[in-house]
Design brief:
The protein has 539 residues and is α+β, with helices and mostly antiparallel strands. It has 15 helices and 21 strands. Strands 13, 14, 15, 18 and 19 form a 5-stranded antiparallel beta sheet that branches. The two termini are 25 Å apart.
Length: 539
């Protein structure tokens, strides 16, 4: 009976565009993914489009709640050894992979051996996963395999090279989600098109450029606080309309349950000048917005390869103080985001501190004084500085250019394609550039690693080539400090050094914005902008 019921759900989805042709008691969540989805293989969950879909089909050892706290998932508990180098996980014994042909059209229980397989596969160079770096801190045996021990079906131990406090946060990433070896062996490179996981939904249909259909996993292991089985929804329908304006109009007509982000082309339709949703739409939609773990910034190449004028710290500080971030956000972004007054770590992470004693509030008088101290005043003007950006951020850079000109700093803008700019930055060939850093995992170490001298590009994400002995010492101390409160205090010290030395000009901290149809309940926002649908209800 259940199979027949699901058959008619799927048939109705395939033969209709939207919900109007479906039975009223079928609860499907609709959203559009203009970027398309390339793969449902967790090992290749690199961008948001893939991450959102993978998050519905698979599970990891641990997961994040809406406050980005580490919670159990496949592992119901864990212990860390006294030397902080070995993590031993106790695996649940009631989790099953989706019913699949690879199991003879049956389901199979997940065991600790699947965890070992998934980690070894992610680490294997043959997999060519962009997420291999997640396991860089795991010890490696003489045979080239990760140092992982599986004494039985419900226990797995992972040994690290040295203590690394954010390790559990890394394991929450989709790269580390658990897959069955039978499916990978059976489908080979096509596993990403034929995923088999343990998640709240399973893949039923996928046509490139048209739609993807995920249906409810009847054997899902998680329950709500009242012991009701999750998920509540019967399925998820994802379409792939490339034209964002078309997708927006479909949302306005009620054909989609959510849109994420706010495109400049239609932001004024929904929002007023202060960034609040216009009153006339409140009966149809509601907006959620929380700090998004993304810092937009201007990077400065430090050292011999950089512009000579920008090697002077006073000039870098003058740039930081020479433009009004608050007005920039109000007039150019409808206050969708937060002016970056307090360094590189965004709000939403421990280590962020709104310090009123030292910040980058607009202060043109102090900026001029710093320029004078650097030897640039009167007729001795600062040479023109080239800033490279992409077209999407030209308005911000023109605003900064205009304000800095008033204090004697002349900026010339060079607009280059995004791929070109990324390559120039990675090769240390751009001396002053606009960039952004989106967190991979919810720990401020993810941001502060950009300034650790041993992470200098091209071997790491230190694209400014910044080097500071005191900073390096604090970084090395932080990653072995297991006390969260102590580690967060160290992060604050590191953030202050970055502000004082100013290898970057932080512009704003982004905001995760969603517009949601009022019939949807339980779609909670989070600072990683993860899409968590297992707890969503639809009226």
């Amino acid at each position: 009976m259940k199979k027949t019921f699901l058959f008619f759900i799927v048939l109705a989805i395939f033969t209709s565009c939207y919900k109007n042709n479906l039975p009223e008691d079928i609860k499907l969540f609709y959203y559009n993914e203009s970027a398309g989805i390339r793969s449902l293989d967790p090992a290749f969950a690199r961008d948001q489009a893939n991450i959102w879909a993978v998050n519905q089909v698979f599970n990891g050892l641990v997961q994040l709640n809406d406050s980005l706290e580490i919670k159990p998932c496949i592992a119901k508990s864990w212990v860390v050894s006294e030397n902080k180098k070995t993590y031993t996980f106790n695996i649940r014994n009631d989790i099953y992979f989706h019913n699949s042909v690879v199991f003879g059209n049956k389901k199979r229980k997940l065991t600790a051996f699947d965890v070992n397989y998934s980690m070894q596969r992610l680490f294997d160079e043959k997999t060519a996963s962009p997420g291999k770096w997640v396991l860089n801190n795991v010890a490696v045996k003489d045979n080239g395999k990760l140092d992982i021990t599986v004494p039985n079906d419900t226990t797995v131990s992972i040994k690290l090279k040295k203590p690394f406090a954010p390790f559990l946060s890394l394991l929450s990433m989709q790269y580390c989600y658990i897959v069955p070896h039978e499916a990978v062996d059976y489908y080979g490179k096509d596993f990403g098109r034929n995923p088999v996981g343990t998640g709240p939904f399973f893949l039923k249909y996928w046509k490139d450029g048209v739609k993807m259909v995920l249906l409810k996993n009847p054997d899902y292991f998680e329950t709500d606080s009242l012991n009701n089985k999750l998920p509540y929804l019967d399925g998820v329908v994802i379409t792939f309309i490339v034209e964002k304006h078309t997708a927006f109009m479909e949302f306005m007509q009620g054909h989609y349950d959510m849109i994420s982000g706010i495109d400049p082309n239609y932001k004024d339709v929904l929002l007023d000048a202060n960034g609040n949703m216009k009153e006339k739409y409140l009966s149809q939609f509601h907006m959620t917005r929380v700090p998004y773990l993304n810092t937009e910034y201007l990077g400065i190449l430090i050292g011999d390869k950089g512009l000579s004028a920008l090697q002077n710290r006073n000039i870098r500080l003058a740039i930081n103080l020479g433009f009004d971030r608050k007005k920039m956000m109000q007039y150019l972004r409808n206050n969708i985001g937060y002016p970056a007054l307090y360094g590189f770590i965004p709000p939403g992470l421990k280590g962020y501190e709104a310090d009123t004693s030292f910040n980058f509030e607009y202060n043109p008088q102090k900026a001029k004084k710093l320029l004078a101290e650097a030897g640039y005043s009167g007729n001795n003007t600062l040479p023109e500085i080239l800033l490279q950006t992409t077209g999407s951020y030209l308005d911000l850079c023109e605003y900064i250019q205009s304000q800095l000109k008033e204090i004697g700093i002349n900026i010339k803008l060079d607009v280059v394609p995004p791929a070109t700019l990324r390559e120039l930055i990675a090769q240390s060939k751009s001396t002053f550039f606009r960039a952004s850093w989106i967190a991979d995992y919810p720990d401020a170490e993810n941001y502060l690693s950009l300034f650790y001298s041993k992470n200098k590009s091209p071997f790491g994400p230190n694209y400014t080539l910044f080097s500071n002995k005191e900073y390096d010492k604090l970084y090395e101390q932080a990653i072995i400090t297991t006390s969260d409160s102590s580690r967060h205090e160290i992060y604050k010290q590191m953030n202050k050094i970055i502000m004082q030395e100013s290898p970057v000009i932080s512009l704003y901290y982004d905001m995760a914005v969603r517009f949601i149809n009022n019939r949807i309940k339980g779609l909670e926002p989070n600072s990683l902008n993860l899409l968590i649908l297992k707890t969503v209800k639809k009226d």
